[in-house]
Amino acid sequence: GKGSFCPEGTLHDGGLALGSARINLCPAGYFCPEPTLAFLCPPGYFCPLGSHKPFSCDGIALSNVAMAGNYCPIGSDMPFGLCPKGWYCPDASQAFRCPEGHYCEVQSLEPKPCASFSSCPEGSQRPGISYMVLIAMVSLFVGFGLMLLSIALWIRINQRKTLAEGSKAEKQASLLKAIGVKLGLCAEQMSYASNLKGFSENIMLVDIVISDLSVRMAKKGKSKLVLRGVSLAFKASSLNIIMGSSGA
Q: Is the pTM of the predicted complex or chain greater than 0.85?
């Protein structure tokens, strides 16, 4: 009858001799409209064991929930095949490779567009990160790191410069104080000297030049020529010492 398959040379005894009532049923994945004919189940249909006709894979429901995204290629014997990853199946009989710029998860009815800056070549099952975006992100982080490093170096250099200027000012103040001691400055003058932070950067440097200087000292009606025809020059930023014959 329908759903059985008895080609020439087969034996059917109702299962008495071989112990099986399933003998001579139309094979799974095929349908047999007559006992002598067997056809491969077409795409979009399924043909379980003993089928006399193909059954549509569309409109299948499980527990009153419609099944979508199933795929029944040629020769299917069950309707529960799922549309594979990287493909989309608008109905149970068709499967198309996911186009470029889209991705197709398992059981997809249609391709989904990929988000901006993602990479989705043909046949993608999920969005990927674009190499260009990855390179741009790495470059951004590297540039940000270099900027932070530059700022840290700038702060370090300025700190060293400030410390150097402070040390220089301290040395200059100590020098001014030492000169004040040598010159015999009073306490008030020394206090003023100790508060000096350094020499002014805007000070005008000059040389003092003396030409043909003569000095006569008078005491008790007597006079004495101390200096006669002295010519000398005091250079700017130089220390000059005048000593007498006794070393004073």
A: no
